[in-house]
Design brief:
By secondary structure, the chain is of the alpha+beta class. 29% of the residues lie in helices and 28% in strands. It has two domains: 195 residues, no CATH class; 186 residues, no CATH class. The chain has nine helices and 19 strands. The longest helix has 28 residues. The N and C termini lie far apart (63 Å).
Amino acid sequence: MRFLKFLALVLAVLCLSACNQNAAEPDEGMQRKIQRRCAEIQSQYRQLYEDADKQMPDSRWEEPVLSHNSLDAIEALLQQAGLDVLRSGEKGPEYLTTGEQFRTFLDAVRQDRQAGQEVISIRSSGDLGYRLFTYEDGQMSVYSMVASITGEADPVYEVHPVLDWELTDRGNFYYSIYPQWDKHYVAYTLIRLEVPDEALWEQNRKYISAGGYVGSNLFLTDWTEGDFKGLCFNDLWEYLYRYEHGEQFSPAGYDYSQESHCYEIPAEEFEGTILPYFDMDRAALRSLTGYSPERNTYPWRQIQSSDLVSILGYYTMEPEVISSRVNPDGTLTMTVQVLSTDLKTDCLFSHEVTVRPLGEAGFQFVSNRVLSQGAQGLPYCQPRFTWPVPG
């Protein structure tokens, strides 16, 4: 009810702006109204923020960060209060709890009827992220404000016309507020209107996040554990290292070959990271990876900034497991669609991954098969050994 009263005031301000040749003053009125609305929302969770567990930053220039449990409690409180809040769960992506209400707003837009819709998010610092979508006289706009919960920073206020938008069959709302030619900003922002399937997102986290799509062909070529010849294990090294250790691999201190333009990874380290994820022996791995018996090392080429510009200039990629099945032999086959906010598409390309769960021992990759690709094709996936020599 409070939001409906607030929306009536907002639409009144919009009407005043349309009738007034000098729109600066009405816009200032809108800013004040949104600031008061943010303060009203913050008052509902301020006590939870005060009592919340906070991780203190290493630098005095950074803000304390709330624990996930504290963020979850605040989001749940606002959801119970009937607000249009984005939930940020540990087992899935952020989604709007009142997706059907947002769909009602979009129906009004399609019918050229005046309407408004809030979207509220709580940042890791506890600050409030507020967006108000409005539709008036054939134009969708979004008013946004970031309001500090501590009051130590002034609110950041912006207003933009929505230049393009689309709601997909999977309930993903994409919208753009910047010209497509301006690459300083993201092309589209995504708001999910459907509740994520936690089981599928857990599979996404556990299996798909172990690999990568940039400078690695694990998910971009067809291969099976009966024939690993098409798979480049050298390029997969840094991804499995990150998955295993929880941090990016740093080559500092490793020997570097000017001839091959590769770092030399000691065999014990390389094999200890790669082999647990595949049903293959040491001899097979060495035959496929350029192993040096003299130095007992494996070559690994780091991706340079020049590579990103000249070779890897592709689109944003976010893999999502959309379905899965358990096979008679106990393996798990997942269908993955790769979403791109650059192109407001849920499926830039898709592939099918099979893994062998091993309980506490982890899992093994069994096969990959590319299912589909759009007009943009697949990301560049040639082994790094074949790339041009860095200048």
